[in-house]
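Pinned message: reference record for DUF3108 domain-containing protein
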Amino acid sequence: MYSSTISTVLKVVSIYVLVTPFHCFADNEPDGDGESGILNINTLQCRLKSYELQFDLIRDEYNVGQAERSLKSLNNTGMQLQSNVTASVAFMEFVQKEISELPNYTANGLVPVKYTKQQKKPFKSKTTKSYLIKQDVSSNRSFDPLSVYDHLRELVCSGLKTDITVDVQEQKEKTQYHFLYKGEHTISLPIGDVDTVLMIRTRKTSSRETSIWFDINHNYVPVKIQQVNNGENQAILMATKIFTKK
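Predicted structure (tokens):
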């Protein structure tokens, strides 16, 4: 019984690492020294009015949860990016909700101004964290841990074919996320075979890697996310439903 409980806890910890946050496993570890590899956003081709994505969360070949990611208009107040994740193993459940407020969309793409995260971890009370995103016109644009991946989608859609480092604000601190460009790949998902572009986020001080596959034929939305640590697969998010609107 004791060993079974330990195994369950370890699985929940692994899932928590994967979906904390669903914005592709961000942490506070700096990856670089500023934004590089940037190209102009093709707003006509790559801007989306809305999208809705649904995912299965897979751990050790078992479905242990679901996730949703959406972009929608808020009348005259701009746009909102949101993600929801629910993961459970045995009697333990993890629930998380994230929101990025995007009132502006410039010639260079989306501009976030506020980020909010709500979490309910096993055996703990619900927590809420919210902070404003500081934009400095004299330096590179900053993103929050959720919107940075929609910015990456815009870049890949616009023809990015190189490694890139992007500035991200995590609460009061600014860090950098570094991504490696790995070219085009055809992958199999529950919805069928999908043509994708693969980007991998690496860390300087650990072997943890996060792979994100962007769907070429559905406006480059992320359709598969996988985290590997020390060569071991931690967990996978696989798209089960895709809707996009330009």
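Pinned by admin. Summary line: The first helix runs from residue 2 to 19.
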